[in-house]
Amino acid sequence: MSTTTTARSAPTAVSRRGDAVFAGLATGAGLLIMLALAGVAIFLIIEGVPAISASGEQAYGKDNIVLYVWPLLFGTLLAAVIALLIATPLAIGVALVISHYAPRRVARPLGYLIDLLAAVPSVVYGLWGRAVLAPAILPAYAWLADHLGWLPFFDGPARTGRTILTAAIVLAVMALPIITAICREVFLQTPRIHEEAALALGATRWEMIRMTVFPYARSGVISAVMLGLGRALGETMAVAMVLSASGIITIDLISAENPSTIAANIALNFGNASGTKINVLIFSGLVLFVVSFAVNFLGRWIAARGQVKA
Amino acid sequence: MATSIDISDLNIYYGDFLAVEGVDMTIRARSVTAFIGPSGCGKSTFLRSLNRMHEVIPGARVEGKVVVDGQSLYDPSIDPVAVRRQIGMVFQRPNPFPTMSIYDNVLAGNRLNAKRMKKSEADDIVERSLRGANLWTEVKDRLGKPGMGLSGGQQQRLCIARAIAVEPQVLLMDEPCSALDPISTAAIEDLIHELKSDYTIVIVTHNMQQAARVSDDTGFFNLKAAGQPGHLVEFNATSKVFSNPDDPSTEAYISGRFG
User: Fold this and answer.
1) Dist CA A183 CA A302 (whole Å)
2) What is a single Pfam family found in this protein's UniProt entry (chain A) (predicted)?
3) A297: distance to nearest CA of chain B, Å?
């Protein structure tokens, strides 16, 4: 038994040393990621737990930790969801233009341009949102408050451009490249024979897209949106710079009183925090971690389920 | 419903590349016309030019005339989408829509016309088309199941049912049996025989026995030389092409000697 084992493994070990090295490196890299993730989770839990009993001054004047974190979570979700409501149709449209409508010499540069949006640092988006977009969009908010003020979203009064809606628009621009890139890839993978089947039946290009491209790409689009949502949830700098936050819960998108987001709130307050306040902020980070993790997991799960079906 | 097709001096280009040159022929109504020839000789390209499907490839264009029922297909006022609703097509690989049931696959073309159909009307079309494609008895108990669950031969007959559901004037078939086993192939060939009483059928095939079995007229396409455009060498009654062809290269091809 032992002789056969050595006889078989000895030449294998010699001839595959390169394999062994790379396998070791790859495994090590994979383990490192797991360790980093576990380390972050453990840090968040250990440092966040003391905040559960925080109240009053320690919890920034709130009675307990839930009352402190909930408005922040609400603001985070509100900004991210609005951002996706704006970005998703836009991204699908742009991806369709690139994959099915534009001639190739237009589609390529357009694709590069969209990818470039992802390369802009978020602090630049923050500057742009605060210095350019916010003042420029204020008249539009005033108009919305005047004419659509009966909707709770546009109650107003519109006194500043630095609202949750402006933050959401900036987030939408930031989430656009990732959603567009994934949608474009799945749209391009639609089997040609299905597209031709639709065209041969007398489908127009739009009908062909509805009959073949969308059904085929549905799970890919959903996972793209989920990844975009992950990006929008965690974005810190741009929101911190754009949003004029007061930490309230409201669905009025254009008033001067805006909910803050978890990430921006941590960035703005951590430098001055001490004692249990630090734990409170870290606990809010744990909440964001769990939500982002769940969103990404859900996105991957939907994508994987769709692949099995196709 | 069925109609003849007159083609005169048709050149087909992909960009600057001339793929098929100078085709003249008349395809008779309610008959089966087969195109044979070596790979790359342009017979599929020519077939696709008959319902403007080749235009799906960027840069593709034609010169010359294709006249169906007195109407030129390439008249500037003609919408290619309208052409494809009149001239159906079946492809080399069965391509039912994967997300649709058998029932919805058959009705896919009818629903494109955006008319609201009554349920009974839709049921009638599905049954008539599936019976027309010799598939009804095999699938009538599972119309709600996905079309992809059928065998390859059944999928191809489903595609034929889908094509005839919109009652086209002409049915184009691009090597419809090349991905099928011999039994499924026989089923499709029987079907072609039945369909020709109602439709004008044009079929491209690599299988010369198949061309001899199913067609009334046969066109032989060939390349003059590598890199040269494909052209129509001979177009005659199938019996003549396979027994006493006019052109020596036709005889060389059908007897297995190339050149």
Assistant:
1) 14
2) BPD_transp_1
3) 25
